[in-house]
Specification:
The chain is of the alpha/beta class. It has a single domain (4-241), classed as Aldolase class I (TIM Barrel, Alpha-Beta Barrel), CATH 3.20.20. It is 36% helix and 16% strand. The protein has helices at residues 21-30, 50-56, 81-86, 97-102, 107-119, 132-136, 140-151, 179-192, 212-216, 233-241, and strands spanning 9-14, 39-44, 61-64, 91-94, 123-128, 162-165, 200-204, 223-226. Strands 1-2-3-4-5-6-7-8 form an 8-stranded parallel β-barrel, surrounded by 5 helices. Helix 7 crosses helix 8 (179-192). The chain binds 2-phosphoglycolic acid. Residues 14, 166, 171-172, 204-207, 225-229 line the site of 2-phosphoglycolic acid.
């Protein structure tokens, strides 16, 4: 398993359902990685492209965007944590809000997926975050508390799990919370449970070249989960080089 403590910050590219072989070859040819080796760069292409990515990658890590909650068996179309580790995949995003909302994933499944990943020496990046409606009702912390309690397995610790705070209303919208709100929410997560104190906590939701540096330098923020901006090689390069 990757030693998370070796890194001071994490930049995780979530390509969602985008990219083909041509895009990936071009991305790999054009991406300029930071000289600062304390930055951990993780690229998460579609599952279909994981093998190609891990065979052709530069000095970054490869992550998946989803995994089965089941270890193996009669589950047509699923991808196991064990098969991800066969491909030298080191990270996997779990419980992204698109999976929670569009594919109706529940906290309990997210927990099972994370357990499978940890058991196969992969690091789950477990996403939590409130919707706009929940934010407007002023129940953000209650929602986060429930998601953290129910989706993070007992076997998780700061060495084998990353948390990503992604307000749902900030994803793909160009909107972000204020830096103060981001830092406060990360502190809430960190202090919510003694166990989370040393966890790496990433922020995601409309991170771009022009806000990444400020966001990732906040006291309680250990890096970023980046969607749209990670598909533009020059913009992503700026984010990781800054
Ligand atoms: P975005 O997506 O950067 O395009 O807002 C982030 C994510 O969905 O992880």
């Amino acid at each position: 398993m990757i030693k998370l403590d070796n890194f001071s910050s994490f930049f995780v590219a979530n390509w969602k359902l985008n990219g083909n072989f041509q895009f990936i070859s071009q991305f790999i040819a054009e991406i300029s990685l930071p000289r600062d080796k304390s930055k951990c760069i993780v690229i998460c292409p579609t599952s279909i492209h994981l093998y190609y990515m891990s065979k052709n990658k530069k000095e970054f890590y490869v992550g998946a965007q989803n995994v089965s909650q089941h270890k193996d068996g009669a589950f047509t179309g699923e991808i196991s944590a064990d098969s991800l580790s066969d491909l030298n995949v080191n990270f996997c995003i779990v419980g992204h809000s698109e999976r929670r909302q569009i594919f109706c994933e529940k906290n309990e499944e997210i927990k099972l997926k994370s357990v499978n990943l940890i058991n196969n020496n992969l690091i789950p990046i477990i996403c939590v975050g409130e919707t706009l409606e929940e934010k407007e009702k002023g129940i953000t912390n209650d929602i986060l508390e429930e998601q953290l309690k129910k989706s993070i397995p007992n076997s998780s610790n700061f060495e084998n799990t990353i948390i990503a705070y992604e307000p749902v209303w900030a994803i793909g919208t160009g909107l972000t919370p204020t830096n103060e709100d981001i830092d406060d929410t990360h502190r809430f997560i960190r202090e919510h449970n003694d166990k989370f104190n040393k966890f790496k906590i990433l922020y995601g939701g409309s991170v771009k070249a022009d806000n990444a540096k400020l966001i990732t330098s906040l006291l309680n923020v250990d890096g970023a989960l980046i969607g749209g901006a990670s598909l533009k090689t020059d913009e992503f390069t700026k984010i990781i080089q800054d």
